[in-house]
């Protein structure tokens, strides 16, 4: 246990140091996790000392932040699911962790960037907060606002909120989120506009330089007219007036079968 | 010491009750009711006809309110023979009414016995089902006052153990009710989460034993427990891993559908949620008998309908049971219908605490985008060309930039037909389509499948007497037998007939 204590202090130090030594944290975390398993604290069961549990939780929390800093999302996922036990089942026993809500918020953003909206809402419902005070918690209100803006289409607000992240780690997700919204905007533009001036397209898509835009346009298959400086979107889906024969036949057969059952 | 002190006021009440029951004998006293119920349960067990047990359980809610210790004591005394072990066990749970009270009980006992039609000389213990039933009543009595919650908890554990040992199929209907009492006991003791392992274990056993009623009851208990702790993902997993027994009663089905509807709504699967809630409404007891459930389902269903982009019927909000409970929701519906964001936000703020306690707040706050969509739709219908600036003002959006993105998204999502002319800064709304595309067939198909589903569900919800078809089968079997015999006879007879002329020919 004393060995574990020393490792834990080491981890705290190297995690708090600026700039944080990611590599050292990683090796320490691996050792600590083995230590936790032998002490029966990683997946706690039975009667355990609350103080030990708090230390175990702290280690896992540092692990979660460390995974974000070293850009390892699956690892964050693992740490988060291990932390669930501490937050939910041991919640009443342990003192509140100041890192709990930042980590929950990070998890919400992660779900958002992976476009798992249903999971996002399920997680949101299961937060141990009354629903009308969700917005007063900065760590939680940030992902909530992002989701709302994404859903209604206020992309510029998402773009502007990038700098307002309540914790350093949140910024990591911003890049992938930007990728998501750029694709969203692009698909909106394809249907909403016939053509767009290059300059405006760049502002709409939040591109700083024209070359980035051109690369993006190429990727989406847009026709760029450099002399006039416009992008033309190929109109698709005009001649979709075909009758879906198979579907209609299947539906009619289904009706016949049901009617037969009734009669 | 605490229980003793607490007991006093209840004792006084008991005496009053005893006096009142002495003075007016005309309506069947609770004791007599319990006794006839026990007799009915016996009959159900001996004739293998669960119908009688169901009839007994139907009176449970009414009977619960009339229970007191004296009634229970009398009932136990009357039902069991004098030297029964079970009787002693049961009586041990019923707190002693003061000495005078118990002597008074003795005095009253004989006349009460003569009034009941039950056979007087009880020499044999009634079936275990009756014991469970009586225990159930005792638990309900315990649950009626906060001081005895703990005793209820103890008794609950004992009864659950006993039920597992007995393992009798004829006990299932009563057992299902017992599980409800178990849940109540835990919930009132404020430790609902701790009951989950017990429920899960019992659910497994019940499903192995094909004990449908208990299983249905337990699945609902578990779902309720998960949802009250907001554990939606666990609840969802439970739903996907279990099959709700089809033979379960309507009230259980209604609850189950309500819980499933709630889970689906949280997961943004609104059409599935809507279907489940419709089922729940259809299977729910009459609104006058169970107004609470009816209101809860309707609250959720209104929100889900709005999220699907439909507007609920106006008549719904005039329903006598719903009118008051749904007033906040009515305001929300009005705001969504007019597409006014400011009105929506104001309503949400006014009724926040109500929505919060109904657990619909987060669902309702998702409606924001629907409000915007309706707003844009209305604009696109009334204008053929409108500047982004005006859209921004009319919908109370924050900036023109936002308006452009929002309109773009609305066009992509197919909410409106039209396009944006960026250079001029306006939105041009395309003419409406004729309305004779393939989507018409789709909508039509959806409606038909809804009607068919409704029909099938109604057929399934009908009740048939158990094993009635067997009689018919037997009849058919008999008829077939007779036919066979007849055919045989004819054949034989034919043979004889044929033989004779044959013989005659030969002769």
TrEMBL record, chain A:
Decide whether keyword Cell inner membrane is in the record: no
Q: From the UniProt record, give one GO term of the biological process aspect.
A: proteasome-mediated ubiquitin-dependent protein catabolic process
A Pfam family reported for this protein in Swiss-Prot or TrEMBL: CSN8_PSD8_EIF3K
Keywords for the protein's UniProt record, in alphabetical order? Proteasome
- Alphabetical list of InterPro entries matching this protein: 26S_Psome_Rpn12 (IPR006746), CSN8_PSD8_EIF3K (IPR033464), PCI_dom (IPR000717)
- Domain PCI span(s) in chain numbering: 74-250
Extract one GO cellular component term from the record.
proteasome regulatory particle, lid subcomplex
PANTHER family tied to this protein: 26S PROTEASOME NON-ATPASE REGULATORY SUBUNIT 8
Name this protein carries in UniProt: PCI domain-containing protein
What is the scientific name of the source organism? Antrodiella citrinella
Automatic annotation (TrEMBL), chain B:
Segments of skewed composition (Low complexity): 103-126
The protein's matches in InterPro entries, at most eight in alphabetical order, are given as: CSN3 (IPR050756), PCI_dom (IPR000717), PSMD3_C (IPR013586), TPR-like_helical_dom_sf (IPR011990), TPR_PSMD3_N (IPR057985), WH_DNA-bd_sf (IPR036390)
User: Where is there biased composition of kind Basic and acidic residues?
Assistant: 1-22, 474-491
- The UniProt regions of compositional bias labelled Acidic residues, in chain numbering, are 492-507
Which SUPFAM superfamilies does the annotation name? Answer: Winged helix' DNA-binding domain (SSF46785)
Can you provide one Gene Ontology molecular function annotated for this UniProt record? Answer: enzyme regulator activity
Every PCI domain range = 254-434
> Annotated region Disordered: where?
1-31, 101-126, 474-507
An annotated GO cellular component of this protein is: proteasome regulatory particle, lid subcomplex
Its keywords, alphabetically, are: Proteasome
Parts forming coiled coils: none
Gene3D superfamilies for the chain: 1.25.40.570, Tetratricopeptide repeat domain
Q: Which family does it belong to?
A: Belongs to the proteasome subunit S3 family.
What is the protein name given in its UniProt record?
PCI domain-containing protein
């Amino acid at each position: 246990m004393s060995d574990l204590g020393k490792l834990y202090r080491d981890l705290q130090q190297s995690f708090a140091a600026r700039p944080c030594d990611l590599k050292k944290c990683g090796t320490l975390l691996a050792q600590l996790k083995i230590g936790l398993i032998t002490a029966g604290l990683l997946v706690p069961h039975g009667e355990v000392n609350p103080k030990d549990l708090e230390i175990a939780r702290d280690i896992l929390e540092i692990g979660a932040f460390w995974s974000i800093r070293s850009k390892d999302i699956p690892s964050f996922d693992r740490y988060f699911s291990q932390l669930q036990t501490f937050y939910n089942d041991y919640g009443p026993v342990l003192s509140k962790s100041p890192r709990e809500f930042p980590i929950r918020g990070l998890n919400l953003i992660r779900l958002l960037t992976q476009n798992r909206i249903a999971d996002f809402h399920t997680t949101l419902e299961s937060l141990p907060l009354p629903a009308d005070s969700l917005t007063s918690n900065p760590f939680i209100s940030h992902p909530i606002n992002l989701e709302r803006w994404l859903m209604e289409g206020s992309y510029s607000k998402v773009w502007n909120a990038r700098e307002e992240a309540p914790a350093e780690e949140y910024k990591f997700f911003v890049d992938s989120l930007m990728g998501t919204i750029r694709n969203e905007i692009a698909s909106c533009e394809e249907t909403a506009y016939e053509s767009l001036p290059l300059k405006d397209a760049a502002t709409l898509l939040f591109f700083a330089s024209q070359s980035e835009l051109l690369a993006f346009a190429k990727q989406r298959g847009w026709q760029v007219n450099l002399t006039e400086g416009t992008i033309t979107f190929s109109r698709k889906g005009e001649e979709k007036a075909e009758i879906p024969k198979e579907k209609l036949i299947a539906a009619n057969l289904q009706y016949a079968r049901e009617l037969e059952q009734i009669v | 010491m605490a229980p003793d002190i607490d007991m006093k006021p209840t004792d006084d009440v008991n005496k009053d009750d005893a006096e009142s029951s002495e003075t007016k004998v005309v309506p069947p006293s609770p004791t007599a009711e319990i006794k006839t119920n026990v007799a009915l349960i016996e009959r159900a067990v001996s004739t293998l006809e669960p119908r009688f047990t169901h009839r007994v359980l139907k009176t449970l809610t009414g009977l619960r309110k009339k229970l007191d210790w004296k009634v229970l004591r009398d009932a136990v005394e009357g039902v069991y023979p004098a030297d029964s072990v079970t009787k002693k066990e049961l009586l041990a749970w019923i707190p002693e009414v003061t000495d005078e009270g118990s002597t008074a009980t003795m005095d009253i006992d004989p006349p009460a016995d003569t009034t009941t039609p039950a056979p007087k000389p009880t020499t044999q213990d009634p079936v275990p089902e009756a014991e469970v039933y009586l225990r159930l009543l005792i638990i309900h009595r315990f649950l009626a006052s906060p001081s005895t919650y703990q005793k209820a908890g103890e008794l609950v554990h004992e009864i659950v153990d006993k039920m597992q040992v007995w393992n009798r199929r004829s006990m299932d209907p009563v057992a299902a009710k017992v599980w409800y009492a178990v849940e109540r006991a835990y919930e009132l003791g404020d430790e609902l989460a701790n009951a989950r392992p017990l429920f899960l274990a019992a659910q497994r056993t019940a499903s192995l034993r094909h004990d449908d009623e208990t299983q249905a009851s337990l699945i609902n208990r578990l779902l309720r427990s998960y949802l009250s702790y907001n554990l939606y993902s666990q609840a969802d997993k439970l739903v996907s891993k279990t099959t709700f027994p089809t033979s379960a009663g309507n009230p259980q089905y209604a609850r189950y559908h309500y819980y499933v509807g709630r889970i689906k709504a949280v997961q943004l699967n609104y059409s599935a949620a809507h279907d489940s809630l419709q089922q729940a409404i259809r299977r729910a007891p009459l609104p006058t008998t169970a107004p609470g459930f009816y209101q809860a389902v309707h609250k959720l269903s209104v929100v889900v309908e709005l999220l699907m982009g439909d507007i609920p019927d106006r008549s719904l909000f005039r329903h006598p049971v719903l009118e008051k409970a749904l007033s906040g929701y009515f305001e929300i519906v009005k705001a969504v219908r007019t597409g006014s964001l400011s009105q929506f936000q104001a309503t949400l703020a006014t009724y926040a605490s109500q929505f919060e306690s109904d657990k619909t707040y987060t669902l309702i706050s998702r409606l924001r985008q629907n409000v915007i969509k309706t707003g844009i739709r209305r604009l696109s219908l009334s204008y053929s060309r409108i500047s982004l600036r005006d859209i921004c003002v009319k919908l109370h959006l924050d900036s023109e930039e936002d308006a452009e993105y929002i309109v773009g998204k609305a066009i992509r999502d197919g909410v409106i037909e039209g396009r944006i002319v960026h250079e001029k800064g306006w939105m041009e709304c395309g003419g409406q389509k004729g309305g004779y595309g393939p989507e018409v067939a789709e909508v039509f198909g959806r409606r038909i499948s809804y009607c068919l589903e409704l029909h099938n569900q109604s057929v399934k919800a009908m009740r048939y007497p158990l094993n009635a078809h067997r009689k018919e089968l037997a009849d058919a079997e008999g008829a077939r037998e007779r036919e066979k015999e007849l055919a045989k006879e004819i054949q034989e007879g034919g043979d004889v007939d044929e033989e004779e002329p044959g013989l005659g020919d030969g002769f």
